[in-house]
Design brief:
- By secondary structure, this protein is α/β, with parallel strands linked by helices.
- Among the domains are: 186 residues, Aldolase class I (TIM Barrel); 58 residues, no CATH class.
- The chain is built from 12 helices and 13 strands.
- The strands form 3 sheets. Strands 2-3-4-5-6-7-9 form a 7-stranded parallel β-sheet. A 4-stranded mixed β-sheet has the order 1-13-11-12, with no helix packed on it. Strands 8-10 form a two-stranded antiparallel ribbon.
- The longest helix is centred in the N-terminal third of the chain and has 19 residues.
- Bound molecules: iron/sulfur cluster (SF4).
- Iron/sulfur cluster binds next to loops.
Length: 352
């Protein structure tokens, strides 16, 4: 009998890279409360919350023009504050800039991040007309205890209706979660991921909770009333969350805070500059070992197994300092059985 060949694909949605995003940070601007964990000045490296907006927008325009000369049209993103709660004047100034940049061919679209409790129909409609296509909601968690202790000042019901409002207004919906925030367990985080997927998220961001200087969370931590997750728990839990998202064909476009922030201000928490690639590597290992270890595949002759991976996985597949070489070898996947090529998703081949 000729050998039989069977293949199993592993769902994995690669993040889209087009168009490239040009970020503009408005740290704390529009924020109605100061959330317990938040230090946008540290995260963005900017302390412009009380500076007049007009000169900042002038600088933004110049920077955008230069960036477009090098990269072509971009997507402009307003991050770091509560965009939909800016004062009327500041909101209108940002929208005017977006409309002008779109008319001049500098941008293809705009997006913003904001809080779920600051959406209103008339502002969303103005944003649609001004070429905004995506809204990212800083949900952090749907767990009420976590929301309350972090002074988020809204409830889970409101967070869910905000997701619905963004979708019904015709925007793409991005949701940001904060695994490891106070009262947040791995189980709660995984339930949060499932809820974001059920509620129409088009993409996710995972920002594990860090204790940053001069925050309410730093006081809680100093008083031994909060303990951040350790790095292993974070990697393992986020990897499971990532796999849940891939199963629904939803990308997680960012894992962890940007590496350029001032690390001297990180007092505690699962900080790691390679967190994103370590989580991806572990997620893939979990998915692959689940398939190989399944009763169906255990009956196969493992010497006939090969794995074909998309090229972009080459940088992380074997894990941090090749820590996954041995675990993969124990599954029967030695280096000679793994190839990187044009595959759109990881695919295992069994023959025999
Ligand atoms: S988490 Fe968001 S809403 Fe809260 S203070 Fe920071 S930027 Fe403002």
């Amino acid at each position: 009998m000729p050998p039989q060949r069977r293949q199993v694909s592993i769902p994995w949605s690669a993040p889209s890279t087009h168009p490239r995003i040009y970020p503009f940070f408005l740290p704390f601007r529009g924020c109605v409360t100061r959330c317990l964990f938040c230090a946008q000045d540290i995260v963005t490296g900017q302390n412009t919350s009380h500076a007049p907006l007009k000169p900042l927008l002038d600088q933004l325009w110049l920077g955008l023009e230069m960036a477009v000369k090098m990269n072509g049209p971009l997507e402009l993103a307003f991050y770091g504050g509560t965009f939909t709660a800016l004062s009327d004047l500041e909101f209108a100034s940002c929208l005017d800039l977006v409309v002008a940049a779109y008319a001049k061919g500098l941008i293809l679209a705009a997006r913003c991040s904001t809080r779920p409790d600051t959406l209103n129909g008339s502002r969303l409609s103005l944003m649609r007309k001004a070429h905004f296509t995506t809204i990212e909601l800083g949900i952090q968690s749907f767990n009420q205890e976590s929301l309350d202790i972090c002074k988020r000042a809204y409830d889970r019901k409101l967070a869910l209706s905000a997701c619905q409002m963004v979708k019904e207004s015709g925007f793409k919906l991005g949701l940001q979660l904060m695994p490891g925030m106070p009262k947040n367990t791995p189980q709660i985080f995984l339930a949060d991921v499932a809820r974001t997927l059920k509620n129409g998220a088009d993409f996710l961001r995972f920002y594990p909770c860090l204790v940053l200087a001069n925050t309410g969370l730093a006081k809680l931590w100093a008083g031994q009333n909060y303990q951040p997750w350790d790095l292993d728990t974070t990697i393992n839990t986020l990897a499971q969350g990532l796999n849940l998202a891939h199963q629904k064909n939803v990308s997680v476009i960012r894992i962890g805070l940007p590496p350029q922030m001032d690390l001297t201000q990180v007092l505690a928490g699962p900080w790691c500059p390679d967190l994103g690639s370590r989580v991806q590597a572990w997620a893939l290992f979990l998915a692959i070992s689940k398939i190989i270890g399944s009763p169906q595949e255990k009956t196969k002759n493992l010497t006939s197994m090969t794995l074909n991976l998309p090229k972009f996985m080459q940088g992380f597949f074997w894990g941090h300092k090749a820590e996954l070489l041995k675990p993969y070898a124990e599954l029967g996947l030695t280096e000679s059985r793994v190839t990187f090529g044009a595959a759109s998703c990881p695919t295992l081949f069994f023959e025999g």
